Structure formats: C-alpha cells, structure tokens
Amino acid sequence: SWLARAYPNDRRIKEAIEMFEHVVAVEAHNYAEDDPERVLSVDLLADAYIQLESCNENMDSKSPVSDGDD
C-alpha cells in the first residue's frame, strides 16, 4: 500500500485508486472492520476518489481557447 500512497503525489490517481481498491478488498478478508490498517486504507481510497473528482472538475471547468470565430 506504500506504492498506492505515493501515486496520488505523482498525479497517478487512477492507478492509486486501483491499488487501494485491491488493498481494501484484501484487508476486508484479513482484518476486522475497525482495524486501524483497514480504516486507513479505506480513508486513503476515499481521499483518492476525492482527488480524482477534483481533477475531473478542474478539467471540465477549463474552457477551450477561442479562435475568435465563435
């Protein structure tokens, strides 16, 4: 999960989400629901989703450059 934690810092959010989803699924079988490691992984996955949504919103809000023919 350390690699997944590094990906958002490197703007590789989609890859981080894929890794966090895998980690969360594995930990669901190995840890209790309130285990600190599992809770941390779920929180990090949620943060990655928020970062992805923020990036998508930023991309959507950028208007294309006009060539003056509008």
Task: Walk me through this protein's architecture.
By secondary structure, the protein is mainly α. The protein has one domain. The chain has 3 helices and no strands. It has helices at residues 2-9, 13-30, 36-61. The protein is elongated, with a radius of gyration of 17 Å.
Describe what is shown at a glance.
By secondary structure, the protein is mainly alpha-helical. It has helices at 2-9, 13-30, 36-61. Helix 1 runs antiparallel to helix 2 (13-30) and helix 2 (13-30) packs antiparallel against helix 3.
SSE order and pairing:
Elements: H1 2-9, H2 13-30, H3 36-61
Helix pairs in contact: 1-2, 2-3
Rg over CA atoms: 17 Å
Q: How many strands appear in the DSSP assignment?
A: 0
| Run of helices and strands | HHH
Shape: elongated
Low-confidence stretches: none
Tell me the fraction of residues in β-strands, as a range.
under 5%
Computed structural class: mainly alpha
Tally of individual domains: 1
Mean pLDDT: 80
Distance between the termini: 49 Å
Helix content: over 70%
Give the assembly state of these chains: single chain
The major pleated sheet works out as: none
> Count of helical segments?
3
Question: Which features does this protein show?
Answer:
TPR-like_helical_dom_sf, mainly alpha, 70 residues
